[in-house]
Amino acid sequence: MRARSGPTIADVAAASGVGVGTVSRVINNAEHVRAGTRLKVLAAIEQLGYRPSHLAAALSRGRPRTVAIVIPHLTRPSAVERLAGALSVLDKHGYDTVVCNVGSPAQRDHHLAALTARHRAAGVIIVSLPLSRHQVAEFRAAAIPLVAVDVSLPGLPHTIIDDVAGGELATRHLMSLGHRRIGFVGDKFPSKKAPALGFRSSDRRLAGYQRALTAAGLPSDAHLVRLGPHGPATAEALAAQLLGLPVPPSAIFAASDTQAMGVLSAAERSGIAIPGQLSVVGFDDIQAAELLGLSTVRQPLEDSGVMGAERLCAIMRGDEIRPLRQLLPLRIVHRRSSATVGHRPVTGATEQAGQQTPTIAELGGMPCD
Amino acid sequence: MRARSGPTIADVAAASGVGVGTVSRVINNAEHVRAGTRLKVLAAIEQLGYRPSHLAAALSRGRPRTVAIVIPHLTRPSAVERLAGALSVLDKHGYDTVVCNVGSPAQRDHHLAALTARHRAAGVIIVSLPLSRHQVAEFRAAAIPLVAVDVSLPGLPHTIIDDVAGGELATRHLMSLGHRRIGFVGDKFPSKKAPALGFRSSDRRLAGYQRALTAAGLPSDAHLVRLGPHGPATAEALAAQLLGLPVPPSAIFAASDTQAMGVLSAAERSGIAIPGQLSVVGFDDIQAAELLGLSTVRQPLEDSGVMGAERLCAIMRGDEIRPLRQLLPLRIVHRRSSATVGHRPVTGATEQAGQQTPTIAELGGMPCD
DNA sequence: GTGAAAGCGCTAACAC
DNA sequence: GTGTTAGCGCTTTCAC
């Protein structure tokens, strides 16, 4: 019917004088095969240059050795790190990983719908995206294991951090350095015109910021909170607003490192010294943070991918996941961008040394449910 | 035998009172189906909640609708941008994309070998990785379309840039600003202990740098060339060496933006003003470059992924690709990090305005073969 | 136009 | 232990 593209299991069977069943067993390292037989088969495989067909195996088995990872804004540093973490373990377990990058709700829904089709994926990792009850139900109906990373999915395994606590951590760090007037730069809930993917991290971090302020008896000045679409350019503009205030903040907490970079940039533009005149704290600890000497709340990005993937593998293996909620630890990494109010800069080797010993405050890490 | 997981084409056929062949035609939008019949079938599909099985279709067709992209160091900004570009077009064409991140030669060989197995991928995009003649032959033997991005693959379609010309571009830019003592920070050919993936970009950019220097009648001082393992930390150290020289360079060209960031960082540590005392030019124009005001040689990263993917799709569609070599354009983006020798800084709005009008020098863009 | 039937290459029962 | 066989769900001739 079609041109055959290579030797099949039948050819191997014929060549080695055994049945296809035996060849299959050898391929899959199943037991109940005599050593001699195995060798014969292996020789035939080698000689014929036989390569098993994933497709046929998967169809026959009823389930592909493929998992999908649905991840928004792939090019953001935090997303890639998560992806890389997941890929490394999926790889190790022999899964093919198809990556679905989503940049809009439409794209998200498209991918999600496609993934519940038959034989599409043996499991799915969903990153940062809140799913509707209906979407979750589709996966359940299709019996496709689903785990979430960086987003809470009730009833399903999810690996997350406590964003509120993170916001508190950052704010308390700043307050411990003597800052009393602390600005916040974060994401704004977008308009209907640009419907978003439902990220809540920034909001939660803001909540933590406010909580910490309140707990310390500090007023939370609405003027000090600036929100806008995610991205360094916006963050830069927002920070510029903050710095232009009659009484500007002495510190700014940005909801992400990317945004913190915008803040740094704004300060540089305005000739404001970091950390002399302004302390900045970010969130995530992406790779650029270290390079820029950015103080930040570190979350284990790569690990989140690793954990999510490992849990998915466990489920696909048939294991039960308990507890469903896995909380990853957060900690402050104190670098050059934050210092005590009115800090006088030190240059050269001294500062370098200082940077080598970041102050660290731990939090979380305890799984709970 | 196995628990059936949902309605099949046969169920749809039965429900709509037609044969499976007809259903198949409907699913694939094939012709020769009466409109009425089509509607009936569509109704049955809807009613049964039928989802076609990719696996079965692929097996039957002899070729999956899956392509693989093999890409080293996924977490590097340049790699992600390429990946994102490729994903967007593959997605649009309805392909699943499995991503193979490679961090070592062993991993590379592992993935490459796996991909030549039967029914594994309908096509492969290989990014930045030089392939051995043998590896290429394997793909050819397996009749798996292969295209390269950011690496030249003789006899196969490849989308690349002219790294030598890029190196020249950067160097000439610096020279045009009056710089005569220009340092270079790039990748060193790693030792056997840490066998690398064979990237040659840094070397070629260095060659361009030397060529430009020579063409301008400037001596190329070996002390001004510093090489080390890729990464900002190393670059920072190398730049520090350069800055510590008895007669330090007035400008540094880094083989990548990531390394340029290390250079910037080193300058900041040493209290050296950018661009007052030191001009810096990078390569790639990753997203962070704009934010940092880093002058750089821009290469179309995302586009390279787009182009590679489009060419792969074309081949899978049966088209011929001519010419094989596709050269993407390069251009200098002049930002704050480079200026004339002895430049006096301007602050505030003035500088902001200046940054809005980067000088641009074009090069390449013409396909050739 | 449409139906029937033969694969695609493999896994998994089941018999021996 | 090993061979045989019946699917897995679809595409694609080939008759009608």
> Would you tell me which CATH topology of the largest domain in chain A applies?
Rossmann fold
Into which percent range does the helicity of residues of chain A fall? 40-55%
Question: Structural class given helices, strands, pairing of chain A?
Answer: alpha/beta
End-to-end Cα distance of chain A, whole Å, is 56 Å
DSSP summary: helix tally of chain A: 14
| Proper CATH architecture of the largest domain in chain A | 3-Layer(aba) Sandwich
> How many domain modules of chain A?
3
Return the CATH class of the largest domain in chain A: Alpha Beta
Shape of chain A: elongated
Greatest interface by residues involved: A-B, 57 and 57 residues
Strand content of chain A: 15-25%
How much is the average pLDDT of chain A? 91
| Structure summary, number of beta strands of chain A | 13
The whole-angstrom Rg of chain A is 26 Å
Low-confidence stretches of chain A: 348-358, 364-369
CATH-assigned homologous superfamily of the largest domain in chain A: Response regulator
Order of helices and strands of chain A: HHHHEHEHEHEEHEHEHEHEHEHEEHE
